[in-house]
Specification:
7 strands; globular; alpha/beta; 5-stranded mixed β-sheet; Rossmann fold; disordered N terminus
Length: 204
């Protein structure tokens, strides 16, 4: 998240992930949820990442490293679903979701991210995030076998008071990162995320 409030176009970005989705992510990621770059103290009570960054710490800064080459991290990433008033100074986009995606790619290429699950906050992003559709992806559907997804195929996020919300207007999804994966990792993703929707990709 960005620390400078003058960039934000809304008053809050606090929408938390339901527990069964986080359980699925822990099961798929190599080392569970080690790092969450878009979090808060309250959010991490639910995510339980070993380490996390808050809006004030700003994970999108160029000098912020998410892991190290010696110890690359498994990442859970539910990015803010808001637009900025103007382009982010580093990532040159008004979409924070896209900025976090680009930062994730950079950290992986630098050897500091082992694997990640990125929550697609809006189906509108599917064709705007570079290489996203090349990776295993789960799109939430109305046939989901989870109380965390409503009958329109939308995730029922949790608000700051701990109350499950009706759901956003757009469909959501989950992307397994990186693009080069073993058959076992893809099968694990399919096993644990198929209850939320349809799993597939152009490659797998």
């Amino acid at each position: 998240m960005v620390a400078n409030k003058e960039y934000l176009d809304v008053t809050t970005v606090e929408w938390y992930t339901p527990s069964d989705i986080l359980d699925a992510a822990r099961s798929v990621l190599t080392n569970g949820i080690e790092f969450d770059p878009a979090s808060s103290v309250v959010a991490n009570e639910r995510v339980q990442a070993l380490s996390f960054l808050t809006e004030k710490e700003d994970a999108l800064r160029e000098d912020i490293q998410w892991g190290t080459k010696e110890n690359p991290v498994s990442v859970w990433l539910n990015p803010p679903s808001i637009a900025l008033k103007r382009n982010h100074p580093v990532w040159k986009t008004r979409s924070l979701a896209k900025a976090f995606w680009l930062k994730l790619i950079q950290e992986y290429k630098a050897g500091r991210v082992l694997d990640a699950i990125y929550l697609v906050v809006s189906s509108n992003h599917l064709h705007t995030l570079p290489t996203l559709l090349e990776r295993p992806i789960c799109i939430t559907t109305s046939e989901a076998d989870s109380d965390s997804v409503n009958n329109m195929g939308r995730i029922k996020f949790i608000d700051a008071q701990g109350v499950m919300q009706s759901a956003p207007k757009q469909a959501n999804g989950f992307v397994l990162f990186p693009a080069v994966l073993t058959a076992g990792e893809v099968c694990s993703f399919r096993k644990h995320f198929s209850k939320f929707g349809k799993v597939g990709s152009l490659k797998y």
